[in-house]
Amino acid sequence: MTFTDQSTPRRSTPGRTVLISGASIAGPALAFWLNRYGHTVTVVEKAPTPRGGGYPIDIRGTALEVVRRMGILPRLRDAHIDLRRLTFLDADGGEVASLHPHAVSGGVAGRDLEVRRGDLTDALYAAVRDDVEFLFDDSIDTLDQTEHGVDVTFRGGGSRTFDVVVGADGMHSRTRRLLFGPEEQFHRYLGYCFAVFTMRNTFGLSHETVMWNTPGRAAALYAVGDDDEVHAFLNFARPEPPVDAFRDPEAQRDLVAEVFADAGWEVPGMLTALREARDLFFDGVGQIRMPHWSSGRVALVGDAAYAPSFLTGQGTSLALVGAYMLAHCLADQGPVAGLAAYERGTREFVTANQELVGQGGATLFPTTVRDLERRNDRLRGLSAIPVPAGRPAHSALTLPPARP
């Protein structure tokens, strides 16, 4: 699909004041492009500093062109994780198959990127920190739209008025809740929960991932290099989300330990490490699906508007592409027209990538004995998981040229 700009005629629009909530990926990327187009940008972030660390993320397809146009592609190439092997194990820890990761993900060797999340956020922050106002350790408390702007009060005190406000504050977006209401009406639970944390690399793993499966359960160890630590990942099927556990870390640990109590391989040691982990992240696997991404002068971008889930491998790429498209459409149009053009030009791309979720779940987390056997047979008999013919979803949008 190619973006077609349907708004005419065009005229030069004076720079506006824009508030962005969230300084992870979509927020700083959007700030970069808005600043380039002459807008005065403020980014508010509830964390006290730019967010570092985190698990590895993918940058593929159209998103690669976004980071190239931002001038940060060489830095990200230097940070690329050269993951060389993905090994699948059965319930007893025996090898099912060992493949190059691109054979499963559909990635393109030598082109697609996988980097530590912190390396990307550092690159984005460095690209805008001298040109954009950042308010750390603060967040939006209230939004009130008027004919002339958006009145914002901050939790840290004070209030200001902006021409446009954008929520780039993640899957559990507060901006979305203030604008559209509770998350439940937009959240599509996909039937899994997961826990991710770091632990000591006592396994001799290097540049590889090892994944153990039984029906409805998976455990993985991910070594991004020759580090002393690995990312540990525990995923399990659950028909309904465990709502009571989401805000209680000890309840999360108890739930995961219960689900994996009889598991073999390295899982007992992973559960011990889980109890001691200070960086545990637990959540349900889900997507955000919304009929509209904006209302008046307030819009959403990235996971706040259209989280695709990690099963697609496209969350980061959608955030980068969405930020580019939003800034492009606001460059010389009024807020309402610009936000409508952003949605019109981006939604088909977003939908195509969200639909990848079934493919990812079937490959990584089969939930029945029969599905797991079929998956393992495919892995044993093929050097690659078949992907649909035609243009891949992650490359399905051709970006419009950056405005002068």
Kindly summarize this structure in a few lines.
The chain is an alpha/beta fold.
Largest sheet: 7 strands, mixed
In whole angstroms, the N-to-C terminal distance is 23 Å
Number of helices: 13
In helices, the fraction of residues equals 25-40%
Residue-averaged pLDDT, rounded?
89
Structural class: alpha/beta
* Weakly predicted, low-confidence segments: 4-12, 384-388
- Enumerate the strands of the largest sheet in spatial order, edge to edge or round the barrel: 5-4-13-14-15-12-16
Strand content: 25-35%
The tally of strands reads 18
Rg for CA atoms: 21 Å
Overall geometric form: globular
List the helices and strands and how they pair.
Layout lengths: L16 E5 L4 H11 L3 E6 L10 E4 L2 H9 L2 H6 L6 E5 L5 E5 L1 H5 L7 E4 H12 L4 E4 L3 E6 L4 E5 L4 E4 L1 E4 L6 H7 L6 E14 L7 E7 L2 E7 L5 E9 L11 H11 L7 H10 L4 E8 L5 E2 L2 E3 L2 H4 L8 H16 L4 H20 L2 H8 L4 H13 L23
Parallel strand pairs: 1-2, 1-11, 2-7, 4-13, 11-18
Antiparallel strand pairs: 3-6, 4-5, 8-9, 9-10, 12-15, 12-16, 13-14, 14-15, 17-18
Can you tell me about this structure?
- By secondary structure, the protein is α/β, with parallel strands linked by helices.
- The protein is built from 13 helices and 18 strands.
- Strands 5-4-13-14-15-12-16 form a 7-stranded mixed beta sheet, with helices on both faces. It has a 6-stranded mixed beta sheet with strand order 7-2-1-11-18-17, sandwiched between helices.
- Strand 1 (17-21), helix 1 and strand 2 (40-45) form a beta-alpha-beta unit.
- Helix 1 runs parallel beside helix 10, helix 2 packs across helix 10 and helix 10 (315-330) packs antiparallel against helix 11.
- The relative contact order is 0.18.
